[in-house]
Amino acid sequence: MTAFTIHTVDTAPEDSKAMLEGAKKQMGMVPNLFGVLAESPSTLQAYQQLHQAFLDTSFNPEELTVVWQTINVEHKCGYCVPAHTGIAHSMKVDPALTEALRNKAAMPTAKLQALQDATLSIVRNRGNISEAELAAFYAAGYGQQQVLEIILGLSQKVISNYTNHVAKTPVDDVFKKFAW
């Protein structure tokens, strides 16, 4: 198998260069995932747009982390679990929540448990969530908007998790301390 290229700003296709430069300016680095995605400027652009759209949802930082990490753990993404652990720390999410997600432990509140349960059902059943599962999700205080926002988060994570599986993307040095 041919190894995937992890592009830098200098080696990236022309249409990816500005996106990598933007990432470097914003994060102080080009994450390896972005370097891999740069091979396809359209895929890198889609990933970045989905990421921003998911950040703009009604979910707070804890809820964003529950959706992201639930999907990352379910997909067994050895790149995204450490990366999102670091992201959660930067978002001031309680490390106990992050550890619970990484270890498939119970969520600290019934509402976050309902979010995790609905996310897992959507992932595992390819969107075929039961009426009873939806009712439990709604009873926890969520609505149809949040169901659609989980699907948005899943769309983002399919791009990253599957890319990382195929490309065997190495974890960035900054996230290695959060290895999973």
List descriptors:
64% helix, 9 helices, 180 residues, mainly alpha
Annotation, overall tally of beta strands: 0
Strand content: under 5%
Radius of gyration: 16 Å
Q: Averaged pLDDT, please? A: 97
Main β sheet profile: none
Q: What is the molecular shape?
A: globular
- CA distance, first residue to last residue: 25 Å
Tally the helices.
Answer: 9
Helicity, in percent?
55-70%
Low-confidence sequence ranges: none
Structural class: mainly alpha
User: What is the string of SSEs from the N terminus onward?
Assistant: HHHHHHHHH
Textual characterization of the structure:
This protein is mostly helical and 180 residues long. It is 64% helix and 0% strand. The mean pLDDT is 97.
Quick overview:
The chain is 64% helix and 0% strand. It contains 9 helices and no strands. Helix 1 runs parallel beside helix 3.
Topology:
Layout: H1 14-27, H2 32-37, H3 41-55, H4 61-74, H5 80-90, H6 95-102, H7 110-124, H8 131-139, H9 144-167
